[in-house]
Design a protein that fits this description.
2 copies of one chain form a homodimer. Chain A is mostly helical. Chain A has 9 helices and no strands. Chain A has helices at about 5-20, 25-50, 55-100, 100-115, 120-130, 135-145, 155-180, 185-210, 215-240. In chain A, helix 2 (about 25-50) packs parallel to helix 9 and helix 3 crosses helix 4 (about 100-115). The radius of gyration of chain A is 25 Å and the shape is elongated. At the A-B interface, helix 1, helix 2, helix 3, helix 4 and helix 5 of A face helix 1, helix 2, helix 3, helix 4 and helix 5 of B.
């Protein structure tokens, strides 16, 4: 490999690196926490306008955190497994197609490059050369025809666990205020101040690690939390008035 | 375009079609409903073991549905907008790179095809030909170097609204049982039967539209709901005992 190639490889990796931001683990923690803050906070806020007991708010909040973290964690894990199975099924299918309908697959390759304005001669060269290595040909079809990346099952499992646990930690933050106050409305006031600050902080890091403008992203995360909490408060209050 | 090309285009479209399953609208409804069933059901189940009033269960359930649908709908919409902005920023960057560092970009193209075992001559032909059309070159880099598809902002907005509304409808199903029963435990029994059946049905269609084996997928969705509800019930009950 020439030096030039090496340089461009490094540049490409750096370029990619900037897209990925920090490590996937940190990303999962921040995503789980900032999402975990939102719904339990809004639920607690909603109940604060409708019930008289901090114990009920905390119990409901804990139930939501358990439900949400399991739905998110287990759901994410099973979705990861399904994605893996889907990939394997498509992989088998592409191997079958490459083996049994090679001309059709070759014309699919040509079509991909036709769309990018490459001339027929070049299209043919690419298709013929790609067809020489069956595994790489299938790899190419998986990625460029079907847009499927090989899923990492360990990554899916770890990611689901990290997001689920971070959701629990994030969700407990808005609830703490109800432990140290006497009425749900007092709890809500402290909870709102605490949570809005945390939403901003986690929203900031969430945007950083997902490669968005951090302040703008932080404001968005904060805004979603506030709107969800305000809506839950108003609707739960008016709903409770019906009983 | 030759007949052969036409045939392969049609085949490719059919092939793609099978991956997408039904329309995106139906997919969003089914996803929103089956997800909406899970957390409000589990929250209501959790509270049923801890409080004595159906009104509290319903109020908490409604607050959760409001919070969850806003977090999901508004969150999804804003995420779609962010994705759009991210795409535009990367697009601008790729144009800059193609204009100012064309040789580096060309070697990135060569590298992509080197990974698929194409020889240097072919790599050069592709890079040189691609470089002739600036727009298509950038398109190619966006998709194959960065793996970014042009996001559809209308699609993101509609999708978020559909998922959010379907979450509300799905979430109301487990709550209906608490309207027609006297105690939370009675409500939970009816709610559990009703919701588990619905989780199976929506899980079945969810798997169909997302291209998974439907019965297996339906059982997974059902299982997540049951585990989340059972865990929320046990933890909320023991947590409530602390007060």
């Amino acid at each position: 490999m020439s030096d030039k190639m090496n340089t461009s490889l490094t540049t490409k990796e750096l370029h990619k690196e900037e897209h990925l931001g920090s490590s996937a683990f940190i990303t999962d923690i921040v995503i789980g926490m900032s999402d975990g803050l939102t719904v339990p906070f809004a639920l607690a806020a909603g109940l604060s306008g409708a019930v008289n007991s901090n114990a009920v708010v905390i119990t409901a909040g804990v139930a939501e955190i358990v439900a949400g973290s399991i739905a998110m964690g287990l759901g994410g894990y099973l979705a990861g497994k399904t994605e893996q199975e889907h990939y394997q099924a498509e992989l088998k299918r592409e191997y079958d197609e490459v083996d049994n309908l090679p001309e059709r697959e070759k014309s699919e390759v040509r079509l991909i490059f036709q769309e990018y304005g490459l001339n027929e001669l070049t299209q043919n060269i690419i298709a013929d050369e790609l067809a020489k290595d069956r595994d790489k040909w299938v790899d190419f079809m998986m990625k460029y025809e079907l847009g499927l990346e090989k899923p990492d099952i360990n990554r899916a499992r770890n990611s689901a666990a990290t997001i689920g646990i971070s959701y629990i930690i994030g969700g407990l933050i808005p609830l703490t205020a109800y432990f140290f106050t006497q009425t749900p409305i007092d709890g809500l006031m402290i909870s709102a101040i605490l949570t809005v600050i945390c939403l901003f902080i986690f929203g900031y890091f969430k945007s950083k690690v997902t490669g968005q403008p951090p302040v703008k992203g932080a404001l968005k995360v904060m805004l979603i939390g506030i709107i969800a909490a305000a809506a839950a408060f108003l609707i739960a209050k008016s709903f409770n008035g019906l009983f």
